[in-house]
């Protein structure tokens, strides 16, 4: 790549950091949209909040770190939805070793 673009100073580390930052920003915006009191403003391409109290409560209890600010344009959100949309562990299908042992015992009974 340096041969094609000799003045380019970007590295793989830069790319990974940018990917990580965009993913965190997308996830926080997506979590906001999943909660009541938040919505999407198509004209401004940003998350909108019904009231400051809703945002304060969300920031205080759900997410003390701030990766995305509602009202700030995020035009890449819909495009990132296709990339990061379901790329999250939810723990929905997690089971312990005890659960697995019970399942094996149930299968052996039949």
Outline the secondary-structure elements:
Blueprint: H1 12-34, E1 38-41, E2 46-49, H2 52-62, H3 77-84, H4 97-109
Antiparallel strand pairs: 1-2
Helix pairs in contact: 1-3
Domain Myb/SANT-like: 2-51
Protein name: Myb/SANT-like domain-containing protein
Pfam family, one: Myb_DNA-bind_3
- Give average pLDDT, whole number: 80
Which regions are unreliable across 5 or more consecutive residues at pLDDT < 50? none
> What composes the largest sheet?
2 strands, antiparallel
Give the C-alpha Rg: 21 Å
> Topology as H/E string?
HEEHHH
- Widest beta sheet: strand line-up: 1-2
Based on DSSP secondary structure assignment, what is the total number of beta strands? 2
Give helix % range: 40-55%
For the terminal residues, how far apart are their CA atoms? 61 Å
| β-strand amount | 5-15%
Return the structural class.
mainly alpha
Structure annotation, total helices? 4
Form type: flat
Protein name: Myb/SANT-like domain-containing protein
Domain Myb/SANT-like: 2-51
InterPro entries: Myb/SANT-like_dom
Pfam family, one: Myb_DNA-bind_3
């Amino acid at each position: 790549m340096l041969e094609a673009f000799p003045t380019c100073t970007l590295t793989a580390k830069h790319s990974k950091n940018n990917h990580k930052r965009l993913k965190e920003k997308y996830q926080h915006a997506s979590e906001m949209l999943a909660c009541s009191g938040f919505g999407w403003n198509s004209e401004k391409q940003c998350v909108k909040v019904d009231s400051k109290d809703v945002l304060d409560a969300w920031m205080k209890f759900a997410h003390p770190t701030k990766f995305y600010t509602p009202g700030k344009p995020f035009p890449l959100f819909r495009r990132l939805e296709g990339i990061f949309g379901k790329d999250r562990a939810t723990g929905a299908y997690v089971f312990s070793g005890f659960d697995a042992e019970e399942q094996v015992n149930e299968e052996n009974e039949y």
